Amino acid sequence: MPEVGNFVLPRKLLERGVTDMVRVSDARMRGTGFGTVVLHVAPEAAAGGPLAFVRAGDWVALDVPARTLNLEVADDELERRRAGWTPPRTPYRRGYARLYLDHVLQADRGADLDFLVGASGSEVPRDNY
Predict the structure, then answer these.
(1) Exposed, middle or buried: residue 7 (CB in 10 Å: 0-12, 13-18, 19+)?
(2) Which H/E stretch holds residue 72?
(3) Sign of the C-alpha dihedral, residues 115, 118, 121, 124?
(4) How many Å apart are CA 44 and CA 11, to the nearest integer?
(5) pLDDT digits 0-9 by tens, 50-87
């Protein structure tokens, strides 16, 4: 989860009077944003999650009370997009960045190191802060 989730509204929309719009990301943010933002979407786009396949003009259905977010694209079209996708290349061959890429779990699994899961600590509730 990169710390790049400061999603301001585009200037051209602000000039037209738009004061909020849903922004969806697999990033995280420090609370510097405002408005309707859905974060920590998993799996991340870089891991081949649904955000990697969103295209201009696609509809996305957000139901906050039901806690669902759905890309409304036909299954066959989604499969075509997935078949043409290649994972982003990384320059990291070793070190912490490589360890992070290879072993940190997705947000929905706690962003923990996979080799530490179940080894120590206690359960962290979903709404812990």
Answers:
(1) buried
(2) strand 68-72
(3) positive
(4) 27
(5) 899 999 999 999 998 998 889 999 999 999 999 999 99
Burial 14-49 (b: 16+ CB within 10 A, else e): eeeeeeeeebbbbbebeeeeeeebebbbbbbbeeee
pLDDT in tens, 17-29: 998 888 888 877 7
50: how many CB neighbours lie within 10 A of its CB? 21
| Burial grade of 9 (CB within 10 A; 0-12, 13-18, 19 or more) | middle
* Token pair 């400061």 in the structure block, residue: 6
Q: Where are the domains of the chain?
A: 1-40, 50-87, 89-120
109: left (phi over 0), alpha (psi -120 to 50) or beta: alpha
